[in-house]
Amino acid sequence: MNQDKVKEILVDLDNTTDDFSVVFTGKESSKVDGLYNRETCEILIHNRNFKDDNALIYTAIHEFAHHIQFTKIDPERNSRAHTVAFWNTFHGLLDIAEQKKYYTNIFNSDDKFLNLTKEIKEKYLTENGKLMKDFGKLLVEAYDLCQRNHAEFEDYIDRALCMNRAAAKNIMKVYAMDVEPSLGFDNMKIVANVKDNEQRKQAEESFIQGHSPTEVRAEISTSKPEPKLTKKKLESEKARLEKSIHALQVKLADLEMKIDEFEG
Predict the structure, then answer these.
(1) What does the pLDDT look like over 146-186, one tens digit per residue?
(2) Beta pairing partners, 24
(3) How far apart are CA 219 and CA 69, in angstroms?
């Protein structure tokens, strides 16, 4: 596979991007398989690193996701490289590439990966999810018992269980929202924290279908209605910015005085 063919594949995955070039360096690197140059919009592939086209295409898609990130998502190119938006873009491109037969997902095609994934999900993620859900049920019982005895539940969490309050709240939520345990506790927390019932069900279904946490978080984010602006909110934001500006001005003045001392 040559660099022109790689570019043809990438364009077929997303043809709405700014123009870019794919360059095979003809080199082997022990550090990275590929790079993206933000300034020149070049995808550099160390093609001598690869023994098969599948791994090469995976790397090309990774760097192409950076191209999309820095030309469409963040055209000012100010963000760090591996943001949540990047991972969401990258995983989405991999899904399309898999559907179009450009890329074969080794995690879903290699028996060793399949067996290992099955064991991890069944013995650990699902079992841990069930355990934490049962834990949540007991914490809810503890909350009810505190209510009946006029005791502070937060005090029970702090002194009797020696637990973090936020952690206890999340554990109770996954029980109260009846989240599917096979998602694993971390993903259960993401689902449980979605307020809207329909959106919560959709998030759970997305995990079941095999979407990554970054993809699900992006779905949740895009489905949220824009917060309603009020005069009070705008005034509060204005006050916050003015306070930040003032703090920066004080810091700047202090730095200028120190610089003057050196010059003097």
Answers:
(1) 999 999 999 999 999 999 999 999 999 999 999 999 999 99
(2) 45
(3) 17
